[in-house]
Design goal:
Strand content: 25-35%
Helix content: 25-40%
CATH topology: Rossmann fold
CATH class: Alpha Beta
Number of strands: 7
Order of helices and strands: HHEHEHEEHEHEE
Strand order of the largest sheet: 3-2-1-4-5-7-6
Shape: globular
Radius of gyration: 17 Å
GO biological process, one term: methylation
InterPro entries: Methyltransf_25 (IPR041698), SAM-dependent_MTases_sf (IPR029063)
CATH architecture: 3-Layer(aba) Sandwich
Oligomer: single chain
Low-confidence stretches: none
Number of helices: 6
GO molecular function, one term: methyltransferase activity
Protein name: Class I SAM-dependent methyltransferase
Organism: Mycolicibacterium hodleri
Mean pLDDT: 91
Length: 211
């Protein structure tokens, strides 16, 4: 049994964001700029936007963004960041528990960056819903942790971290409609809370819906 089983997902994430005034760095996630290099901007959906680092970066680079999170606190911080950087008019914020509801419409880019949770998250169904909402010619971008950081105290030892091939097998998207533009594991440098270096491993999956 998870230690969070007595909390709803929204309660858990509100408590998480309430721990500190800022949880994340405010910068775009590391893999996204390279993935989108040379891609013409259009309509983007940011799943689990947190405090807005990716949504703001996308808006600054010409995308019209719908940014979604379960936490009102996170959305408030993301909206404040968008205001501060002059792109609030390019981002629409919506609160969703993606296990239950999903934004309407279709998108040229749907980004799921580190969409992990130790509380209820119907991830396979969410990613299938995301695939259904990608416009022809658009991209579904999934970036996952390949494993938990060694210093993590919140991730149960049996929490799953599926490989890229396992994620794609679960999605089971038809080859006639989808192209695997990129599927690999990428290493990047990081530091632990004590400032010591360690290596992150990210699963990167870029799927393009055939036009």
């Amino acid at each position: 049994m998870s230690p969070h089983d007595d909390q709803t997902a929204q309660e858990y994430w509100e408590a998480h964001y309430g721990e500190r005034e800022r949880i994340w760095s405010g910068r775009v996630n590391a893999q996204l700029p390279g993935i989108l290099a040379g891609v013409a901007p259009g309509r983007a959906l940011d799943l689990g936007c947190g405090e807005g680092g990716d949504a703001v970066w996308l808006a600054e680079n010409g995308w019209q963004v719908t940014a979604v999170d379960i936490s009102d606190t996170a959305i408030g911080r993301a909206a404040a960041a968008a205001d501060a950087r002059g792109v609030r008019d390019r981002i629409e914020f919506e609160r969703h528990d993606l296990s239950d509801t999903f934004p309407e419409g279709t998108f040229d880019l749907i980004s799921a960056q580190f969409l992990h949770s130790t509380v209820r998250l119907e991830r396979p169904q969410i990613l299938r819903n995301a695939a259904d909402a990608v416009a022809p010619g658009g991209r579904l971008v999934i970036v996952d942790h390949a494993a938990p950081p060694p210093f993590s105290k919140k991730v149960p030892h049996d929490h799953p971290f599926p490989s890229p091939e396992e994620v794609l097998a679960e999605l089971d998207l038809p080859d006639a409609q989808w192209e695997r533009a990129r599927v690999d594991v990428v290493e990047r440098d990081g530091t632990d809370p004590d400032g010591q270096p360690f290596t992150w491993r990210d699963n990167v999956m870029v799927l393009r819906r055939r036009a």
